[in-house]
Amino acid sequence: MAEKEKREEMSEEESKEVKKEERGRRGKKKKKKEKKVSKKKEQTHTERRIEGIKKTVIPSLIGMVFGTVLGAIVGDGESLNFIELFILVAMLTYVQKFIFPAVGVSSSDFETKDWLYVGFMTFAFILVSWTMYINA
What we know:
By secondary structure, the chain is mainly α. The protein contains five helices and no strands.
């Protein structure tokens, strides 16, 4: 209500200037979004493919290593709680945030779906390699 009263008190020219400023702010936000999208478009198809392969291979290798280590330490898993396994996967997913830049994948551009994918791949490979270790 206070803004409407202020606008009524302003002259027409002042209200036009305020509207222009508001539009300018909105335009700046759109430009920032366009810049972020343009970085992704600058990558070629091959570069995106290679980045996708790296996003898959790294969680897979980490999951296999830690699944084997988990099998050696815990054995059949009677003493392991699901919460402990969840904490392990969460920690490994967080560690990958620092590993990805070392191999040329920008983890700052990751969205929620990317991190969920990384966490799932790590979890799946931990379970698969742990099961293979137990059955061997």
